């Protein structure tokens, strides 16, 4: 380690720019843009209707008209992958949205009120976190019923204790700082203090957590769709495509590859960006 | 670790289980609409609905329902499946060995591979081994375990018939039949945890290596394997053990999907069917059982932690 | 600290060297000037040598170079470290391991962080015996018990199974010392062994070291910034400033007639009972950070007597038997050695 590396890095004014300066996260960001782009443009760029069946052409290999082959109903795999990208982007957003919607106010509240509120909600969060996440998600899906939206809401509920903890921790830390006290002294109401002073300070840890949760949510979506509790036919997500590929693995052993790679790359993208954001926002440098 | 600490941990575990029992109980209550009607399905007769309502005890006031439910629970009575009519306890007892085997084996794989790789990476900081471990770990965390299971099964059980592709053989049929059915799904399931452990182990090893007491040990002539075994491992394990506790739940949950891929009838497949059929007693039993396992694992982790870290033992 | 009773007499210049460091230069592998530059001194058999200087002078690095335990970033540029006929810089890892914890023992600052928190003190003391004498657990444990007794820890048998955090700082340092002498060393490197301790405990630890030195015929290289300790404990003193050895002298001479302005300034910043009411002199400024050392005499920017010639490299000059200075102005006779320098 050189002497320079031990000096605290200057506070980043432009975290995004700092993140993009790293080659790995620049690549990740480019991939994310590509992904969102193809999700939006799927109807334009998809070579076929994703649901159009060509029963005479099942499990077709790679060809000019079907660049990634066809599936068990003769549907074009590439088009389905492209349409599934829409779910890969939106489904995690549902979960993360729910998690923030539940965890953020609860965390702010517990962090500000402390005392009994804090103790009880903390205990509850710990309990939820100690349960196997997928098992809890299953239980919630049992209540809400299967389907993509319900599944992602369930995952969001499972995530909320994580968000709660991050927000609560950051709120406690910020509350220690004197400017909150001075804000209280000049008569800011609690709610105003929260919105104006606390929120900007917890934005950084929250952003990091949310980015990482996006990847976890996508994995959860894939798992739930794989077992048939998430996206319902004829819609396709990468997870449900893997499920179909699994059922036809004797006919088309390589069908598990394309959706799997799409999944891994996307999760990798979220993780890479999350790690980079964490490093940049906490003032650490790339190792 | 003193008896008092063990008792405190036990009490905390019991509290968690109590909270879980409340949440599980509320599952049925929270169902939008009349749960009995939902469960019975569209073509059910009025009698069917009434029977289910009776079976779930939905006619009594909520508090009474909860107390009765708890009483049954404490006697080990988790109710009966709404579909097969078999007792939930029996259903779970039958499915649990397969799931616990996969999960346990996955933990073993994760610890051996993850801690081993992390240790080597930490000791050879900056070398190609280190970079390789960190790359593989990054990938490992991003890969869905059920996909890895499919790839492994396709490679080792379908393309080459080295191992059985599906099914489960209980341990009493012999070690190899048991192991041969589980090794692929357990490896797939444990991979992400191994990756997580490798990262943490590496960090912990790097951190410990620059501590003054390592320098002192070197100054006494300790080196190589002696230094690693007597000074590095224990100290580096302290933060890693905590991570392992957090991973136990993830593995138990993850086994749901891996079981499907490996064609193993375990808790996961039981739970999935229960969800699709809204078989509430089975779902409740599954969630409670998972919670008990996780609480037990965490208790074991706490005890291990106390054994590794003498500061906790007396504190 | 009381006025220094100049304990042991001047070392005869002929004393046989146990350790001799010659031309030791360490750097960070960059173009910066060395963290430690041309350091040269000897520790005679059975004698005690102090290595003093302000924080950041390179004392610890010098001691670590002897043990072959330099931080990764630090590189040996040149030099020789001869210990009883072996060059520790070229001898290879096996020989180094034989010497570490065997003929050369070490005691460090901050016993709390220097003892392994997960190992009983008994095991830590026994470690050197098991490694160097291939003793079994039981024999080594017996030895450890004897050593705990020897360093004055009561109830040694029970204490063997204690963990470091269950002991006070003074006790921990006694354990460190017991572990350091377990390998029957001829030389002990003690890097600020008392700095982290309370004043009363400091005196006890020094007393213990003195007893051990007498009983076991140990040579000691004592790294410290405490001149009281030096006067009390050592035969000779090596003064370092910013990686250079600026003066070497028998302790009595160093205290009476320091021959480098830095030594004299150091002496001025020690409270002395005979001048208890005069305000403490402190040296203005600080040691420059490694990498921004000036050329020539590195003390020049802070020296009252700095002259143009101080910008040139300073030669080592022998003033009397065993008394060396690096101050060109003293060597040239411009300045007279003494406390008022
Ligand atoms: N691992 C390292 N990497 C870079 N520089 C180092 C390293 N270790 C020490 N140094 C530098 O070497 C110089 C000498 O350090 P050293 O620890 O030997 O000082 P010291 O005389 O023992 O001081 P102290 O009284 O504070 O213990 C310091 O300037 C320090 O910054
Ligand atoms: Mg030092």
From TrEMBL, chain A:
Q: Which domain of life is it from?
A: Bacteria
Q: How is the protein disposed in the membrane? A: Multi-pass membrane protein
Enumerate the InterPro entries for this protein: BP-dependent_transpt_permease, MetI-like, MetI-like_sf, OppC_N
Q: Which Pfam families match?
A: BPD_transp_1, OppC_N
Main site of residence? membrane
What does the sequence similarity comment in the record state about its family?
A: Belongs to the binding-protein-dependent transport system permease family.
Q: What is this protein called?
A: ABC transporter permease
The root-end lineage is: Bacteria, Bacillati, Actinomycetota, Actinomycetes, Micromonosporales
From TrEMBL, chain B:
Spans through the membrane: 102-123, 135-158, 256-276, 288-308
Pfam families cross-referenced by the UniProt entry:
BPD_transp_1 (PF00528), BPD_transp_1_N (PF19300)
Tell me where the signal peptide lies: none
CDD domains associated with the record: TM_PBP2 (cd06261)
Q: Which SUPFAM superfamilies match?
A: MetI-like
Keywords for the protein's UniProt record, in alphabetical order: Cell membrane, Membrane, Transmembrane, Transmembrane helix, Transport
Protein's cellular compartments: Cell membrane
Residue span(s) of domain ABC transmembrane type-1: 96-305
Which protein family is named in the record? Belongs to the binding-protein-dependent transport system permease family.
Recorded protein name is: ABC transporter permease
Organismal lineage: Bacteria, Bacillati, Actinomycetota, Actinomycetes, Micromonosporales
UniProtKB/TrEMBL annotation, chain C:
Q: Where does the UniProt entry say this protein principally localizes?
A: membrane
Q: Where are the transmembrane segments?
A: none
Q: Does the keyword Transport apply?
A: yes
List where in the cell it is found.
Answer: Cell membrane
In the bilayer, the protein is annotated as: Peripheral membrane protein
| Location of the ABC transporter domain | 19-267
Q: Recite the UniProt keywords alphabetically.
A: ATP-binding, Cell membrane, Membrane, Nucleotide-binding, Transport
Concerning its family, UniProt says: Belongs to the ABC transporter superfamily.
Spell out the protein name for this chain: ABC transporter ATP-binding protein
